[in-house]
Amino acid sequence: MPSTTWNRHHVLSLADFTTAEYDTVLQTAASFQEVLSRRTKKVPSLQGQVVANLFFEPSTRTRSSFELAAKRLSADTLNFAAASSSMTKGETILDTAKTYLAMGTDIMVIRHKEAGVPNAIAQEMDRLGVRVSVLNAGDGQHEHPSQALLDLFTICTLIDPANPRLELLKGKKIAIVGDILHSRVARSNIWSLTASGAEVHLAAPPTLLPKLFTEYVFDEESESPEQKHPSSSPIPPSPHRQLSLHWELEPALQDADFVMTLRLQKERMTAHLLPSLREYHQMFGITRPKLQLCKPHVKVLHPGPVNRGVEISSDLMDDPEFSLIQSQVTSGIAIRMALLYLLGSSKI
Ligand code: NCD
To answer: Which atom of ligand 1 has the smallest separation from the CA of 137?
Structure first.
């Protein structure tokens, strides 16, 4: 394992991640990526530890990815799905978490449709004085740190497979396109990508990217005071973070190195925010002709699940020359192994 800079007990948000922490996660993931290429894709690092996946909201790839990552580290795994649990009998979230604590859980991986649930469970664990780590696997519209870290790892390993590190993205242009308003993936990616020195361009219709979006994101309490921008200024939040907002696609795509497209999150939309999916696809859907505005070797990312033909055209999604979607899923296992390892090894 690489020499580590890691003092974190929980991973709840990327808002206060340091460059050294990003690099530690990326380098640890790179060494696990090597493990995953072996015939025996398993190491004993977390033998004897219990990882509980507490998913209070549906998930395919994140839940499976955390489960496989824990198994590859030889941890024992517990899987919980709200619909088939005692929550249907009225048990509260904190009581469910305490039940898993009483079974000897070391790391709780938590997904919930409400923002702040992983933080509340982490606070409760700290109040109880137990050495349980909480990993946020997506909370409401708030954050999805492991997704942003796997996106970062996917991009960095493409640039330098042997030595992925944050500085590789300095000066790269990255467009994030789509339902930014409802996206926890966008929020976590904004922290990591702007921390790298990349130029981050957000593009969406005004209903999915309100003018005050940056204020909303960067007003997090965890943002350090010197990075905090005066609340009267809508954009940009800090001289160190390069973030631009666009209500048209073209300026965001112009000369972009990477385009990250996001799902229209209909389950989180409380109003009719779009005229029609067809019109949305015409204006903001990523297609082969629109990519001609970008750098010649542009790559496209999507966290999944994808609405084929809405946020990205079906043929582009399946084209390995442009699409990093499958690599993102593969990177997810190494990144989650790294996070579980870093949290778990601080307990040994
Ligand atoms: C994302 C999520 O759940 O936030 N998916 C994921 O974790 N891979 C994005 C989405 O739901 O659109």
So the answer is: 7
Ligand 1 contact via 132 beta carbon (within 6 Å): no
* Mean per-residue pLDDT pooled into runs of 10, the chain (348 residues): 80 96 97 97 97 92 97 96 73 92 97 96 97 97 97 98 97 97 95 96 93 68 40 46 93 98 81 82 96 98 94 96 97 98 82
Q: What gap in Å lies between CA 46 and CA 296, rounded to an integer?
A: 43
C-alpha of residue 178 to centroid of ligand 1, in Å = 13
User: Any bridge partners for residue 11, and if so which?
Assistant: 135
On whether the pTM is more than 0.90, the answer is yes
| Cβ–Cβ under 8 Å, residues 54 and 82 | no
Whole-angstrom CA distances from 125 to 105, 132, 281, 327 are: 11, 6, 45, 35
CATH of domain 145-324: 3.40.50.1370
Domain 19-144+329-345: which CATH number of 3.90.190.20, 3.10.310.10, 3.60.21.10, 3.40.50.1370: 3.40.50.1370
Domain definitions of the chain by residue range: 19-144+329-345, 145-324
Question: Among 65, 114, 147, 312, which residue has the most ligand 1 atoms within 8 Å of its CB, making it the best to mutate?
Answer: 147
Asked if residue 335 has its Cβ within 6 Å of ligand 1, the reply is: no
